[in-house]
């Protein structure tokens, strides 16, 4: 990122500078995360998905602690790692994951409501858990993993 | 909130200060030691760059204790965020103009 401070950067210098800035932002925003974090995450989303098989009140009792657990883990191992406080995740970077997750839930609700096929939540749980594992593997490959 | 207008900022323009702003923009606060490690700068070199950002009102410093250690936490001010985003937009405009 060699841009002189007394002249306007060339297009190539500007391109290089933007690439370096993106890497610097990512170095803070996406710290190395332990692999087990994603295994727990996959279990949590599978649990939340399968909880849809339970009566609404019971489902709420099951889902709440799972969500709290995941939030606490994310708080400790993602957003507040050593030397960083309140890392801000870009919603755009999460778009693909959120689309799959919410889309799977939408399909599950739609299928169950229209066909009474309660078993749909099993494949939905497999999809959401696999999405977390695949996303986690990509994350670890790109940003590293912590112990 | 209106989009930040593209504008080169003399304070932010220096490569190390620009990188410091990039890192600080990605979190609420970043510790001095973490910045030093990621940038590969000496303590004195980082302090020098930070003092210019602090003097310009772009960065705030706050001492705190975490894990029984005294640490210096740094954060971008609203003015600093505005200057950094405007600078990034100016760089993006140069790249866009080249591709047009």
Can you describe this structure?
- The complex is a heterodimer of chains A (about 150) and B (about 100).
- Chain A has about 150 residues and is an all-alpha fold.
- Chain A has five helices and one strand.
- Chain A has one domain (about 30-145).
- Chain A has helices at about 10-30, 35-50, 55-80, 90-115, 120-145, and one strand spanning about 85.
- Chain B has a single domain, classed as Arc Repressor Mutant, subunit A (Orthogonal Bundle).
- Chain B has helices spanning about 10-15, 15-25, 30-40, 45-55, 80-100; strands at about 25-30, 60-65, 70-75.
- In chain B, a hairpin with a 2-residue loop joins strand 2 and strand 3.
- Chain B is elongated.
- The two termini of chain B are about 30 Å apart.
- The model of chain B has no long low-confidence stretch (mean pLDDT about 90).
- The interface between A and B is medium-sized, with 28 and 30 residues.
Topology record:
The complex is a heterodimer of chains A (147) and B (100).
Chain A: H1 11-29, H2 35-50, H3 56-79, E1 84-87, H4 91-115, H5 121-143
Chain B: H1 10-13, H2 15-25, E1 27-31, H3 32-39, H4 43-55, E2 59-66, E3 69-76, H5 78-99
Antiparallel strand pairs in B: 1-3, 2-3
